[in-house]
Write a structure and sequence with these properties.
The protein has helices at 5-15, 28-38, 55-61, 66-74, 100-107, 114-122, 124-137, 158-170, 189-192, 195-198, 205-220, 225-231, 236-248, 292-299, 359-373, 388-395, and strands at 2-3, 41-42, 80-84, 88-92, 174-180, 183-188, 222-223, 253-257, 264-266, 279-281, 320-325, 328-338, 343-351, 378-381. Helix content is 39%, strand content 18%. The longest helix has 16 residues, at 205-220. The chain is built from 16 helices and 14 strands. It has a 5-stranded mixed β-sheet. A 4-stranded mixed β-sheet has the order 1-8-9-7. A 3-stranded antiparallel β-sheet has the order 2-4-3. With 399 residues, it is an alpha+beta fold. The termini are far apart.
Length: 399
């Protein structure tokens, strides 16, 4: 099957939840569906605008209550749990059995950061002691290990305690019970996740990985092998084997996409809309654009995270959100929420080649929605960029 570049882009946008009108009053039900459809929501600590795990739902649903995400992730009856899905992620609770192979590999010292893997090999007795202390004490944070428990000063140093917690988290022995601010509060997995989930049979590695590739395909609509592998960060050889198995079973359809330099695969159940009408500001960690190669293939532009780039070398800014206008990314804005002043500051605004006469007004409308959702009173353009003047005029006509 052959697809035009425009068809592939529309399929991808529809699979990611763009196109349907936003609900008038987004609810927890809408939020749960969005999380299920995406399959994974990346977590990141940067809070210049909003921590990124809040943003994908806003991009798709609009003004949903932020507390609803916290309830779904860390409430009394959550529908999400934390684990390494893409990066640190929120994942639908029902998918927990699909990651047990990764937990088992982590316990065996595979798939971890090199320092964590080495620590697990060399300090297993220490890690077991941490686990026993959590079992005895109850929920803990990394800060609880900074000076060691009373009566045993120095037993845990911060760095060793943190490494032990990370190892136990990777291995699935502990998980996030809640968060205080952004700090994880850990407890034993069996005291956090429902027994109904933990008691489910553990699939084989191949079964679980096939399910994850299927979920990736549903969430992307049309994707290359690299895209499918990246979505849940599957090992290369495993991803190739699972894709081949799903193609043979008819659960992935090989396709050729105009302008793509490699074969692609399509979810046979995907929607194929004739047009997409949408407006959305995208977190730099949004599922639609987090894999930069795919973003370039879909939209014909390079999206790079410049947080760690020295200021004088940045092209677009520090925390830059691309603006999705219908079927194209038409602008990028470097945003900062000045909570003390009640202002959403546009520190730079840049056009993209697909920008049109409607882009400034469309972007201004979306920025006002974001500001209101964040509890900010107004939007101010305070920086450079070839869209800055037109955007300022759209935000404040006649000034």
């Amino acid at each position: 099957m052959r697809l035009s570049a425009a068809q592939a882009r529309r399929i991808a946008l529809a699979a990611q939840g763009f196109g349907p009108a936003r609900p008038e009053s987004p609810s927890a039900r809408h939020l749960r569906k969005t999380a299920r459809d995406l399959g994974v929501i990346q977590i990141d600590s940067v809070n210049v605008v909003s921590r990124t795990h809040y943003l994908p739902a806003f991009s798709r649903l609009g003004d949903y209550p932020r507390a609803a995400l916290e309830a779904e992730a860390w409430g009394k009856t959550p529908s999400l749990f934390e684990y390494w899905g893409h990066e640190a992620s929120l994942l639908p609770l029902d998918s927990q059995p699909l990651f047990r192979w990764r937990m088992a590999r982590a316990e065996a010292g595979e798939g971890l950061w090199s320092g964590t893997a080495r620590f697990g090999r060399e300090r297993r007795d220490y890690i077991d002691g941490i686990l026993a202390e959590i079992e005895r004490r109850g929920p803990v944070t990394g800060g609880d290990f900074a000076t060691g428990p009373r009566g045993a000063p120095g037993w845990w140093s911060w760095s060793d305690g943190k490494r032990a917690l990370e190892w136990l988290f990777w291995a699935g022995r502990i998980t996030t019970a809640t968060r205080r601010g952004f700090e994880r509060v850990y407890d034993l997995t069996e005291r956090v996740l429902p027994a109904a989930v933990l008691d489910r049979p553990t699939p084989t590695e191949a079964q679980a990985q096939r399910a994850l590739v299927r979920a990736s395909a549903r969430a992307m609509g049309v994707a290359t092998a690299a895209d499918l592998r990246d979505y849940f960060r599957l090992p290369l050889a495993d991803a190739r084997a699972r894709i081949a198995e799903l193609v043979e079973a008819g659960e992935l359809v090989p396709v050729t996409v105009e302008g793509w330099d490699r074969p692609a695969f399509m979810d046979p159940t995907c929607r194929k809309p004739r047009r997409i009408a949408t407006r959305a500001l995208l977190s730099p960690f949004d599922n639609l654009i987090w894999f930069r190669e795919r973003t370039e293939r879909l939209f014909g532009l390079r999206v790079r995270l410049e947080i760690y780039t020295p200021a004088h070398k940045r092209v677009h800014g520090y925390y830059v959100l691309p603006f999705l206008q219908d079927e194209a990314i038409t602008a990028r804005v470097d945003l900062k929420a000045d909570r003390k002043a009640g202002v959403l500051r546009v520190q730079a605004a840049w056009r993209e080649p697909d920008a049109d006469r409607e882009t400034p007004d469309a972007l201004a409308h979306e920025l006002r929605l974001v500001a209101a959702w964040l509890g900010l009173e107004r939007v101010e353009v305070a920086g450079p960029g070839d869209l800055a003047a037109a955007l300022a005029e759209s935000l404040n006509p006649g000034r």
